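User: Could you write out the 3D structure of this protein bound to adenosine-5'-triphosphate? I've included everything you need below.
Assistant: Certainly. Input first, then the structure.
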Amino acid sequence: MMNSPGAAIHARGLTAVRGTRTVLRGLDFSVEPGRITGLLGPSGCGKSTLMRAVVGTQAKVTGTLDVLGRPAGDASLRTRIGYVTQDPSVYDDLTVRQNLEYFAAVLLPGRRHRAARAEAVTRAIGDVDLTSHADALAGNLSGGQRSRASLAVALLGTPELLVLDEPTVGLDPVLRRDLWELFHRIAADRGATLLISSHVMDEAERCHRLLLMREGEILADDTPEALRRRNDTATVEQAFLHLVDTAAALTAPAHPQDQR
Ligand SMILES: Nc1ncnc2c1ncn2[C@@H]1O[C@H](COP(=O)(O)OP(=O)(O)OP(=O)(O)O)[C@@H](O)[C@H]1O
């Protein structure tokens, strides 16, 4: 269960530089515990960089970033956060169960944890609905099954915070729906916090709360319902486009000749 009081993630003036580019520009936001927060925005807007900052793997980050009550990157957070990147994190030449046993051995090493390891592996495989494929080689799984196997690795330690970078990319609508049902079960049953990135706007409607990003800045931080209402639109996608147009109009020079 989530046991940190207050926000699960709290950022003030969060800035990240990659190469010579400032990719995150002084972000202020909080992520509610026990809820699903969607991080949405076009490709290249900084979603992965923000997630890397949260899990503590991004260099050149300044400002304040607290995660589960500790500074991001703190060693004590390692077992409390599950992180799934866009790249598959399972070995093709091992079965699903062997993959999980391998990662469980890193998380819970030693003979005295043998029973706990076996239990964690069986539970994680069941959580992602891969029990019938537990003995299949990861290399022979479909894209959706591989995504679920990667998610199972992240679920091994029953993390309080799950950070999932575009977990549904390339999946068909049925698999996408199934995964979102699983995300909701994880939040509801365990009180875990989920931060999930996507550039598919219809997935925004499935989140409790949204951070809409554009060009390294946060355009909006609200519920899908409030975003639609405030922008007087039928969908979050339309609300996002409205916010983008408004932001572009505000930053456009008053006189076109200023551009020269
Ligand atoms: N190693 C790097 N050096 C310089 N710039 C980088 C580096 N890696 C990423 N960037 C730039 O940082 C910006 C943000 O990248 P990031 O991967 O965070 O975006 P994203 O929103 O996750 O995109 P996508 O949805 O395509 O994954 C992009 O403009 C990208 O070109």
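The chain is about 35% helix and 25% strand.
User: Perfect, thank you.
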